């Protein structure tokens, strides 16, 4: 299990501080050249090879555990610093910002900068993350102090308004449940009845969508049964009492979690296998396909919403035959699902397809 060492708290004296770039720092970010070849010896490299060989072009997954600490390079492949954390919205699973620690050679002070995750994830490699299209003014406007004071960091609205403006990003819709990934990983999870059900072992990030696809819960059923790993959507969890709480809570019951199937023992090596990802979506996210893990009120979405959104690759709000055929075991039921023969499946039609799947199992 990967554990993160907690830094000693430092007072948040100011949200943004002035940074002076060292000579030539901005030139590296402005230059454009090909990135170096990635090593294929690491587990992350093998995951990317699996994704490429299987033809999966839209879905690219990495564990946040592996990404944190990865080098960050400019477009000319020169090292800039490291990825120190991810800013995750626990209410939606969105990964909004990556926090980068720049090397002292770039700034006169050891700086941490918030960069849009989408900008960084688009050019990820097995051995490094590539920062594209960033200029000095953006980096200076997006600088934040290092702190363990999460309430002070994310409660500072003027800071994040400035960061959003620096990158031309709209403010998040609805309540923004910002947490750092390092404060989610290894955190204990309790049910509403105070049952300790284990801890979060990992966050699996869908790089293409800049979103947490699922959290890996190391479920502890009790003294007489061995622990097992279960995939759970991040939206099933809530922050514990207070922003600085060392626990997460969930409305799932211990009995409900105990009924969920365990992850494949080799889940880490199969992160990007299309068949494995599709099976995981069916089992853990598609009500009517497998366990029907949680009620819509618990998960924050209706039946099959996660799977529907994944199949709707062009984001037009409906699924055509080509998109459904990405999952052959569902594609074969196209005729039954497309009852009005209009060549498309709405979320409601797709939900009924799930109900038929559940009926066949009973």
TrEMBL record:
Leader sequence residues = 1-30
- Residue ranges annotated as compositionally biased, kind Polar residues, are 35-45
Gene3D superfamilies given in the database record:
EF-hand, PRC-barrel domain
Where is composition skewed (Low complexity) in this entry? 46-57
Q: How is this protein named in the record? A: PRC-barrel domain-containing protein
Q: What keywords would UniProt list here?
A: Signal
Please give the SUPFAM superfamilies that the UniProt record associates with this protein.
EF-hand, PRC-barrel domain
CDD domains cross-referenced by the UniProt entry: EFh
Q: Which domain of life is it from?
A: Bacteria
Which segments show compositional bias classed as Basic and acidic residues?
352-362
Please verify whether the record's keywords include Lipoprotein: no
Q: Which organism is it from?
A: Ramlibacter aurantiacus
Q: Which InterPro entries match?
A: EF-hand-dom_pair (IPR011992), EF_Hand_1_Ca_BS (IPR018247), EF_hand_dom (IPR002048), PRC-brl_dom (IPR027275), PRC_barrel-like_sf (IPR011033)
* GO molecular function terms noted in the UniProt entry: calcium ion binding
Show the Pfam families listed in the entry.
EF-hand_5, PRC
Residue numbers spanned by region Disordered: 35-57, 335-362
Which residue ranges does the record assign to the EF-hand domain?
A: 325-360
